[in-house]
Amino acid sequence: MDLVGGCRAFVSVSETGSFTAGAALARIPQPVASRRIAALERHFGERLFDRSTRRARLTPFGRDVLPSARRLVQLAEAMEHDAKRARLRPVRVAVPATCGVRELAGLAAEARALEVHLEFRAAGPGERAELVRTSEVRAALTAVPAEEAVWSVPLGVAAVDLGPSRVVHLETLRTGRSAGVRRRVWIQPEDDVPHVRDRVLRVRDAVGLSPAQVSVADSLTAAAAEVFASADLLLCSVAQAEELGLSWRPIGELGLARGFGVAAALAEDADRLRTTLHAAVGRCLGAGR
């Protein structure tokens, strides 16, 4: 039987002295209140109310068990309150610093419709999984090779002016002995991971570029500043190039992509990001552009 529901009806009727008023106080129909109290009486094997009068008067047994019933109802209400607060507690998620405010706000709004409140912490690719391990966040969008990824974001190079070419071959950055300033490719911190950085470095060496022509920047801002001030190139996604107002082209010598997976302390948090919120997370990462 529904012991809590029965006790709630019992307490409400005892406080009002009426089955009708007690049902209204418990926010249930009067027949439901009567059935619940009758079930409670069958459960205990004793009458709770003397029904020989017009008012709902407690029997001696009813008076004896009323304090315990009140405590049970109060405890159930406290539990419901605590459960509601727990549902509203934010789920902290570590995300790449490349995620835009508008896209993150859209993700948070979609999650809120599911009664999930997300908070975001921007962090580098090497830090995000560690934040989950140390319980500083409940979930993280982690950097993984594209072939293992839940979301994949194509990478290319961007510059102020790339001309009419449909792709950029890194070998075209090679200069002769008499050349002046050598154009560089800047790798931003989000792509300073082996499965991206090392592939670019192998192409650099294969086409004969100097080591300094592929560099890892301290920040995306620093890399973009170099690109705005010169003919240098930025390794980035289409979405980032659009945001910066740069022309973007794929790299001729290799197909390159950022890969993202999910690490989470609870499987349900990971599953929610992978499935229900998959499209919204993808927009934050720049996938599908």
From TrEMBL:
Q: Which SUPFAM superfamilies match?
A: Winged helix' DNA-binding domain
> Coiled coil located at which positions?
none
InterPro entries tied to this protein = LysR_HTH_N, WH-like_DNA-bd_sf, WH_DNA-bd_sf
Keyword Transit peptide on entry:
no
Q: Ranges for the HTH lysR-type domain?
A: 1-59
Keyword set, alphabetical order: Transcription, Transcription regulation
Under the heading Pfam families, the entry gives: HTH_1
Name this protein carries in UniProt: LysR family transcriptional regulator
